[in-house]
Amino acid sequence: MYTILTVEDDLHINNLLKEALGKAGYACSQAFSGTEALLWLERNECQLILLDLMLPGLSGEELLSELRENLSSDVPVIILSAKIALADKVSLLKMGADDYITKPFEPEEVIARIQAALRRTATSKKLSCLNLELYPDSRKVTVHGIELSLTAHEYDLLYLFIKNPEKVYSREMLYDLVWHGGYYGENNTVNVHVSNLRKKIKEADPENEYIRTVYGIGFKLVLHSNKTKFEAVIYHLITELIQKL
Questions:
Q1: What pTM, to 2 d.p., does this model score?
Q2: How confident is the model at residue 8, as a pLDDT?
């Protein structure tokens, strides 16, 4: 089920959107300020955002900028605003908004715009690295065309890695983003899941390294594997040994 985040400070409008989304078969999470929405987005994921502009805390424009520039998120954003000037619409679309609906609006139009945005996203999105392909819409992962059987947490880890290749994630960050909980240092959950994910990818593509350990920090997805088959095997064995210590 798709999750839509509604960012709207007017309680009546936000609840109206939630009701319309529910009837259309979408899950809805609500935020009533830009600051609340940013905190939610740092810990959760959604497939589309409905965004008001005149918000307490961060404005809609500031939230959109934060989303595109600092969070590096390409989640579709539809603006819902009473601002009707052409300059406002053009400015927001240039900033990275995917659509713009002026208030007052009909719920049916909002749903139709959402469906169109999600169709565009579904057809254009495929995340790739070497011989691995990830399809966010279906949560399908293939290596050399072979579909991998991943657990929910293994998929979520890989999705984070492949969305931001070469970005180093600490164990604390991964635990917070995937398990949505506090990390207390002695918890081995992240290591175990990364190890299992590596094994499954390696079975389908033993010659390439995908997830690299950055010692003392965490893990990252590498875009180019420079290892020979022998080096990859040795590296994998050393990494597994270190993680068990």
A1: 0.56
A2: 97
